[in-house]
Design a protein that fits this description.
By secondary structure, this protein is α+β, with helices and mostly antiparallel strands. It contains three helices and nine strands, in the order βββαββββββαα. The strands form two sheets. Strands 1, 4, 5, 6, 7, 8 and 9 form a seven-stranded antiparallel β-sheet that branches. Strands 2-3 form a two-stranded antiparallel ribbon. The chain is elongated, with a radius of gyration of 19 Å. The structure holds zinc ion (ZN) (2 copies). One zinc ion binds near residues 141, 143, 146, 162 and 163. One zinc ion binds near residues 15 and 17.
């Protein structure tokens, strides 16, 4: 990964399975020239996208910040959804791709740019995209196991604010 390059990875509820066209030896297209989709999706395309995210995309960012794949990250976002809520909290690295998933249709576009990881969700209520979801490196408290922002982790030698007070 280089500082200046931009990398993206999309996880969507829409089927992106491709069909093979033996006649043309390439992806089968529908009457409008778009890739044709199978009548029924078994979820292979979703699993493949998640696999691409966890095995190819995310490791670039983890390596850059020397983060453990069993660690935690801080996620925060402002003005999300029709009710414009703010979101902030810690999630396991292994759950990053799930944070923004909703029950309805969605398309989550993750981007790595200049060492930053952020994402934008497109859905029925967010046709032009949600606000930015930011993901930042975090540590884990040595005493209680909760997430701690990376700078606090360094300053307080791995103890969260609550545990420090006891
Ligand atoms: Zn599919
Ligand atoms: Zn603690």
């Amino acid at each position: 990964m280089t500082e200046t390059q931009k990398y993206t990875c999309t996880i969507t509820s829409d089927c992106t399975c491709e069909l093979y066209d033996e006649e043309t030896d390439s992806t089968k297209l529908d009457e409008y020239g778009y890739p044709a989709r199978p009548e029924y999706c078994y979820g292979d395309c979703y699993n493949e996208a998640v696999y691409d995210f966890t095995d190819n995309f995310l490791p670039m960012w983890l390596d850059y910040h020397k983060l453990d794949k069993d660690g935690k990250v801080l996620v925060f976002a402002n003005g999300i959804g029709w009710n414009k809520v703010s979101v902030a909290g810690f999630v396991d690295v292994s759950d990053i791709h799930k944070v923004m998933q909703i029950d309805g249709d969605f398309r989550n576009v993750f981007t790595i740019e200049g060492g930053e990881l952020y994402a934008i969700r497109y859905s029925h209520d967010e046709p032009v995209g949600s606000g930015k979801w930011n993901f930042q490196p975090a540590g884990i408290c040595d005493r209680c196991g909760d997430g701690i922002p990376a700078d606090v982790y360094e300053d307080e030698n791995g103890i969260c604010a609550e545990c420090k007070d006891y």
